[in-house]
Amino acid sequence: MSEDASLRAAAYEQGRIFQAERDIQITEHHHHGAEIPSASATGPASVRVALSPPLRAALRDREELREELLASVGSGGGVHVLHGFGGCGKTAVARWLFDRTASSRVALWVDASRESQLRAGMLAVAADRGASPEEVRAAQEGRRAAADLVWQRLDDSPEPWLLVLDNADDPKPLRDGWLRTSARGTVLVTSRQADDPAWRGVRARMHRVDVLPVAEAAELLHDLAPGDHQPEATLRLAERLGCHPLALTLAGGFLSQQLLESWTVEEYLERLGEDPVALLDRGAGLESGARERLSRTWQLSLDALAQRGLPEALGVLRLLACLAPAPVPVALLAPSAVLAVGAPGLPAERIEAGLRGLLSASLADLIEVPGYGGRGPVRCVTAHGLLLETVAAGVPRQQRAELFAAVARLVNRAVPQTGEVGNTRLVEPHLLTLLKARSTAGQVVDAARRVRDAHDSAGQWADALPFAAGVVEATAQEGKARGIDKVADLMALGKIIVMMGDFAGAEPIIEEALDAATAWAEESPLLLAQAQVQAVVLYGRRGRSADALKFGAQAYETRQRLLGPTHADTAEAIHLQVESHFHLGNFGEAVQLAQRLVDLLPRLHGQRSDEVAALALLNCAAAMREALIAARGPQALVDDAVRALSWDQVWELSRETVRTYVAHFGPSHPLTATARHNFAVVCWERGDKEAAIGEIRAVVDFRTSVLGEHHPFTIQATADLARMMGLNGDMERASSLAARAHADALRLLGADHFITRLCRDALRPAERVSWAELRRRNASENDRRPHGPGAEGHPQEQP
Questions:
Q1: Among 292, 458, 506, 571, which residue carries the largest CB count within 10 Å?
Q2: What local confidence, expressed as pLDDT, does residue 150 receive?
Q3: In this structure, are strands 205-208 and 79-83 parallel, antiparallel, or unpaired?
Q4: Of the candidates 402, 438, 409, which has an alpha carbon nearest to the alpha carbon of residue 332?
Q5: Average pLDDT value for the chain
Q6: CA–CA gap between residue 221 and residue 204 (Å, rounded)
Q7: CA 476 → CA 464, 530, 586, distances in Å?
Q8: Cα distances (Å, whole numbers) of residue 79 to 69, 164, 165
Q9: Which DSSP letter does residue 179 get?
Q10: How many CB atoms lie under 10 A from the CB of residue 53?
Q11: CA pair distance 327, 353, nearest whole angstrom
Q12: Distance separating alpha carbons of residues 738 and 719, to the nearest angstrom
């Protein structure tokens, strides 16, 4: 129904009425005398016609709801309320039911958006059901209870009926007797109000009408704008619009009705980024009312809340609009928190009332989100993304900066200085949104660093990456990062990228950090040593073992001189040299250094002593393992230190390493899988094949689920599993695993990559080449290659 058609009023006896139409035309009506207009003059033109635009496309969803409503109409009796926020298709469902039942029973439609229209429409229903003009006139004049007349006639109706009360967004008038039940028919109400005494008074069946599933949303777009649109683009447009039925209808209307130019779905998607609400409104028809325009449909609810004395609802919604379109923990909106940050235009003591207003008008929802790590559910507030975009666009410019600054302070307070990742999970989408915004990035950098470090420590590198990259980008844009902070942020980003398996992608970042740290060498030599350690880790995985050994020695010299030989950071530089030596085939040096390091571990001190001790144990165990494997080869030159080793000794150290990793990192940490991988290899070489295969299979399963099947470490573990299974006689399954691993490594890492060679070796278990020999070949060949951007490297798992 258009806005123009809703401008109706009546004057009795001596009265004048002024009506404003679209704010440009004022009409003055003079009424003289006591004559009362007839019912036909003040009521709707018809109650047998749905006062809503015809459906532009067939309904493709809500099958269960439609079946239930249709069955209820068939059985007769009861009140059903379709509720949900504006534009979600409540009236469309009512229109569908009205059209389906009009041929089998009396279908009646009343506009309940205003009390005057509800009253006039219901009296017209009474007249339709047999009330005489005198009865209707008496009800109009107040000489007879109007609602009683209507329901008397509905109860006495000779035909069954369906009564639709559309747009009853303010249910208060319905409480005055207009909403009842009758055995002769079914009442269907559409409203944005999810809870009201009117619904409870008649024991109404409540039906939430929400956005569409994405597949049905894409089908609706195709129905509205048929053509040669790419299905993937149509799906992306549906997702971009949040599967909101009105937005989909407007987008489809625009795409199907263009006269002067023809946009593809891809072009429409691109233009949406500029001003989505304005573009969507261009899809409305010329006679469309406020409810059929995205820019106004939600404003109607906000206006109604303001009239009810809840203007704070807009303030709460504006605050939510500064955040991500994701669940917002209610604790973030606590009055004490909002008061502390000084959110403009939002009195802290009125937040509760404003939020309840949003919930009642279906502009927001209160949901429970499962807590992280088995914690109890967390109550959160959600709102539709397009609604938030619309509200954000309407924030006055003078308030925008102040509001966003307050929200940034609010999110900062919600990120603890230290703690587990689970304490920040629900805040992280909002922190990331503020980190990406130029106006607030600088204010949330420290909080983003804390979240980054928490995820890094937990081995959740995919979750840490956007925060690490966001911090680097934000400080670069601000131009305020101190040199030391810049180096630390670059190193954190590079490390995370390395752990995600993109060794080539991490190289320019870590080398930039190394160059920047070199400039600070005189003022902060330990910063340079830390950057050198990061370079050692990277070059070890890139196969540049000689470079890794060089930088490891430099870091050790600095740390030993400034921190002492028993500091954990000094020990870190030692165990990295152990790794570099055995990758280069220097097994005697590696074992001697490893034994020295094992003796040193009990005396370690420093903040990272437990972590470094665990990492050192693993490198020592790996060095001893590789030395014993190399000693089996032909023409092997066995050092005295290697000759003194035994597999029982290495097995015991490897088992202790797994226990240490579990105790320090936890059983579900990706680094713990590395210790288990080493233990599996040791078990195999020691002759315990069943234990080795079981352990390596568990490592493959874990890495596949946590790191992904295409991570280099997952591929390497898969190749080792295939190799063990093949040598154990299970050739068929081993061949399948090895072929898959080899194909993945070839595609992702290249033919000359060490892991690709390991996978190729797994394809031929009978032609066994020792793993130590493969590493020696790889190290010697790779160190002869030029290194730099685009140079092929051979990443090594640690160990």
A1: 571
A2: 96
A3: parallel
A4: 409
A5: 85
A6: 33
A7: 19, 21, 42
A8: 10, 10, 10
A9: -
A10: 18
A11: 19
A12: 6
Q: What is the DSSP string of 634-657?
A: TT----HHHHT--HHHHHHHHHHH
| C-alpha 344: how far from chain center | 28
Find out whether 301 and 86 touch, Cβ atoms under 8 Å.
yes
Q: Which residues neighbour 441 within 8 Å (Cβ) at sequence distance 6 or greater?
A: 434, 435, 470, 473, 474, 477, 478
Give dist(CA 643, CA 770) in Å, integer. 18
- Other CB atoms within 10 A of residue 183 CB: 9
> pLDDT value at position 293?
79
Residues 721, 693: contact at Cβ < 8 Å?
yes
Any bridge partners for residue 20, and if so which?
Answer: 26
Sign of the Cα pseudo-torsion (493, 498, 502, 506, in order): positive
Q: Could you give the CA distance from residue 61 to residue 220 in angstroms, rounded to a whole number?
A: 9
In the numeric block, which tokens belong to residue 194?
Answer: 């999810």
Strands, E assignment, 476-604: none
Q: In what order do the strands lie in the sheet with 365-369?
A: 328-329, 378-382, 365-369
Neighbours of 438 (CB within 10 A): 9
Q: Please name the residue that has the structure tokens 């008397």.
A: 152
| CB contact burial 117-130 (16+ within 10 A = b; e otherwise) | bbbbbbbbbbbbbe
Q: Which residue has the tokens 């209870």?
A: 145
Per-residue DSSP letters for 342-394?
Answer: T-TT--GGGHHHHHHHHHHTTSSEEEEEPPGGGPPPEEEEE--HHHHHHHHHT
**Amino acid of residue 417:** Q
- Give residue 419's region: left, alpha or beta (phi > 0; psi -120 to 50): left
Residue 9: which pLDDT band, with cuts at 50, 70 and 90? Answer: very low
Collapsed DSSP state (helix, strand, coil) of residue 288? coil
pLDDT over 80 (residue 321): yes
Q: Which of 538, 547, 601 is nearest to 574 (CA)?
A: 601
Q: Residues, the chain, total?
A: 799
Rounded Cα–Cα distance for residues 677 and 687 (Å): 16
Tokens describing residue 90: 């409540």
Beta bridge partners of 629: none
Smallest CA-to-CA distance from 170 within 47, 6, 300, 363 is with: 300
Asked if the model's pLDDT at residue 470 lies above 90, the reply is yes
Which amino acid is present at 762? A
Q: Which two tokens stand for residue 111?
A: 């506009």
Total H helices, total E strands in the chain: 36, 10
Q: Are 484 and 527 in contact (CB under 8 A)?
A: yes
Please report, to the nearest 10 degrees, the dihedral formed by the alpha carbons of residues 411, 412, 414, 418 taken in order.
150
CA distance 680 to 719: 13
Please provide residue 257's backbone torsions phi and psi, each rounded to the nearest 5 degrees.
-115, 15
pLDDT of residue 790: 31
Question: How much is the pTM?
Answer: 0.80
Q: Are 323 and 407 in contact (CB under 8 A)?
A: yes
Three-state secondary structure string covering 713-774? HHHHHHHHHHHHHHHCCCHHHHHHHHHHHHHHHHHHHCCCCHHHHHHHHHCCHHHCCCHHHH
Question: Is the predicted pLDDT of residue 32 greater than 90, yes or no?
Answer: no
Cα distances from 660 to residues 458, 603, 655, 665, 667, in angstroms, run: 16, 16, 9, 8, 10
Whether the CB-CB separation of 453 and 608 falls below 8 Å is answered with no
The residue written with tokens 């009343």 in the block is 110
CB 229 within 8 A of CB 222: yes
* Strand, helix or coil for residue 196: coil
